Amino acid sequence: MSSGWHTASAPGKFVILGEHSVVYGKPAVTLAVDLRMTVAVRRSKWNTMNGERLDFRRQAHIRYLTRDLNHAIDMLTCSEIPVGSGMGSSAALSAAMAMALASERGEHMTEEQVMREAYEAEYFAQGNGSPMDASTCVHGGGVSINMPDPDGEFLWRVERNGRSWSFNDLKAPEMTFVIGNTGIRAPTGPQVDKVHRYMDRSHFAREVVDDIETVTIEGGKALRSNDVEALGRLMTQDHKLLSILGVSCDELNRLVNASLPYSYGAKLTGSGGGGCMVALTDRPEKVCEAIKSRGGTPYVVRTGGRGATMEPEPPKVPGVRRRASR
Ligand code: MEV
Description:
This protein is of the alpha+beta class. It is 37% helix and 25% strand.
């Protein structure tokens, strides 16, 4: 703690397989990355974020997280995670802020409590999603969800609206992934709703979601046995299925197609409609060049980012003094 600040950070994540279908209680596999969101809070006279007065009512997940506060706070945020891009920036913010606020109250939360608070904040803000992003950003490393034969340690189970998700730790082997950001911001809620409406009216859409389940279960096996060729093939197949569901877009398809000649496989990751794609490759430089040549921003990610954790110092936010207490 420095000058009354309570600081925590949480990693971003990407989904290897199973986004959207996981909302319906189907399996998924995710990995945390080495890009982090850092949040610091301290007691204050006014609510501020990064030095600007902040109206919490306009930021739904912050409104939820601060629902029981009886005083104002200064808040600092610093994100290495591209925001609104399917890489879990929102869940990482909720997780880090939940931890920082607990510390400010003089409380310690378990990993599961932080996950539940972050998930509730995400649910309040976006509605209808799964606890996958919150779980990955809180636990870090790798997470498998509703896998029929998980071999990692059981983490927690979440139930909501008749659906349930069992989370297990996943020790993924070292693999190189390149993320390509289209630069198009695409919030999760509307994409989830779009798939929901399609499934409501179409048997075909429900079959596509079942096919994603099959691909994800096969992909989980390929991941555990370090079979990059099989995993890549399944990722590309998953991209096609997600495109049929209507959550890809021209920009994502362009980055996926540009990466494929140098990759085992590639797909959109997260909710789609913009945001990011991910390629599994052992030629990351070539994939980065290909992504750049199509107007995307590449990141070679190191996976296995550590989970949500307290930090000793608040983040340095340009133009904001951290020391002066009010
Ligand atoms: C977003 O990262 C993943 C989705 O499956 C939504 C969710 O699981 O909450 C699209």
